[in-house]
Amino acid sequence: MSGHGRLASYSIVHFATHGLVSGDLKGLAEPALVLTPPLEASEIDDGLLTASEIAQFKLNADWIVLSACNTAAAGTEGSGLVRAFFYAGARALLVSHWQVNFEAAVQLTTKTFAELRANPKIGRAAR
Predict the structure, then answer these.
(1) Quick one: which of 51, 64, 79, 84 has the most CB atoms within 10 Å?
(2) Count of CB atoms within 10 A of residue 61's CB?
(3) Which residues pair with 32 in a beta bridge?
(4) Rounded to whole angstroms, what are the CA distances from 41 to 47, 51, 95, 106, 115?
């Protein structure tokens, strides 16, 4: 992800994309978030943001929001994304444990951020 060093300046980072677990794609050995695929995949940019790549980030985020399926799936697969973001410096995450309906995910995330804006003093767990 080009310019990932700039992520350290944001207190909230939101990824609205697809989440994958190992085996979802041929050769994928770890959980990943799907980004915009390049015209030609390379070692530097294959269109996936893997847990091991995330773990190398330097974040200073109060909250990471992953609007994607299986970002905290049972077992070690999805939880690898969670661990990677915590290792990179995130203090809290909003993730999903299963496949998410697109419309429901949009409503949940939109209403969560609307509530945050309207009442910033309540904790994330109350949203």
Answers:
(1) 64
(2) 22
(3) 20, 50
(4) 7, 18, 28, 29, 39
3-state secondary structure of 12: strand
List the beta bridge partners of residue 12: 63
The helix (run of H) or strand (run of E) holding residue 20 is strand 18-20
Tokens 């697969």 label which residue? 77
| Tokens found for residue 123 | 């904790």
57 touches 87 (CB < 8 A): no
Query: What is the pTM assigned to this prediction?
Result: 0.78
Q: Are 17 and 32 in contact (CB under 8 A)?
A: no
Q: How far apart are CA 28 and CA 8, in angstroms?
A: 27
pLDDT tens across 36-57, in order?
888 888 888 889 999 999 999 9
